[in-house]
Amino acid sequence: MKRAGSEALVAVPAPEFNLELTLECGQVFHWQRCGAGWLGALHDRAFYAEQIGGSLRVPAGTEEIAQRYFALDHPLATISASFPRDAAMGRAREFCRGMRIIRQPAWECLATFITSSMKRVSHITQMSQAIRRTFGEQRRWNDHVVFAYPNAARLARSNEDELRACGLGYRAKHLLRTARMIASGEIDLVGIDQLDDVAARALLLQLPGVGEKIANCVLLFGFGRLRAFPIDVWIERVLREVYFQQKRKVTRKRLREFSLNYFGEFGGYAQQYLFHHARKTWSAGHFQASSGTAIETRA
DNA sequence: CTCCAGGTTCCGG
DNA sequence: CCGGAACATGGA
Question: Model pTM?
Answer without folding.
Answer: 0.94
